[in-house]
Amino acid sequence: MLKLAIIGLVCTTLIISILFQMSNNSILCRAPVLVSPGILPDTNSTKDDNIMSQQLKVDAVLHYATSRVIPQQTLDEIKVSFDILKSLTPCNFLVFGLGHDSFMWASINPRGTTLFLEEDPKWVKAVIKVVPFLRTNTVNYRTKLSDAEKLIEHYHKESDCSAKKSFLRGNHKCKLALDMLSNEVYDKEWDMIMIDGPKGYFDKAPGRMSAIYSAAVMARNRKGSGVTHIFLHDVDRNVEKVYAELFLCRKNLVKGVGRLWHFEIPPASNVTNDFC
């Protein structure tokens, strides 16, 4: 156990330190200060923001340096999302799954919104005890991994699941639609969505079918400019791979590293019944 703890400490410290060093500029990008002509910017406010950002960065390093666990993703996988988040921050970042790497993601986007969706309320309480500033919502999924094949049949038969309708809030007929989320999730436009949860490795687990479908709907409904970056982990598993190709689309896949796929999904430009 001691050996594993040492390995975890070294690996997590190296991951967070290497990522910080990879940035040419400060990892916690400075938000633009908008002022009227002839009026000097509030330097005290900017200074306070920088102090807060630097403190979060230090806290993140200390957190991972003293952790006994290794993040779910490898360094190469993390860097894919890291590079995009670094270029977009401050931004809206939605994460399916609350894990040992959550502090890291939140600390990179301190002036943006980083929201974690987690199915296990006990795990939420345990994590919040350690990192109380994380923003989390508990989600009660209505799917099971064992239903993955039947849910594809359901998608093809249920008109409220079609890309033509493509809505989540109040969509009770489509079993793949996450219709129980908070208003914040529905009302915000998410620049980045990471799917590294819910659990999807045993039959009674929720599986990631609804998360993948719902992320695709959010991306297609984007009203703002630009694409939605979606990162899907564990694509070595059959369900993740099949659902990704059905809803996120092979044509939108821009990068694959290890068990992570990165999609760039533009807003829907047509109203066809299919996602791809």
TrEMBL record:
PANTHER family: OS11G0490100 PROTEIN. NCBIfam families: A_thal_3515. InterPro entries: IRX15/GXM/AGM (IPR006514), SAM-dependent_MTases_sf (IPR029063). It comes from Nicotiana tabacum. GO terms for biological process: methylation; plant-type secondary cell wall biogenesis; xylan biosynthetic process. This is Arabinogalactan O-methyltransferase 1-like. Keywords: Membrane, Methyltransferase, Transferase, Transmembrane, Transmembrane helix. It is found in: Golgi apparatus membrane.
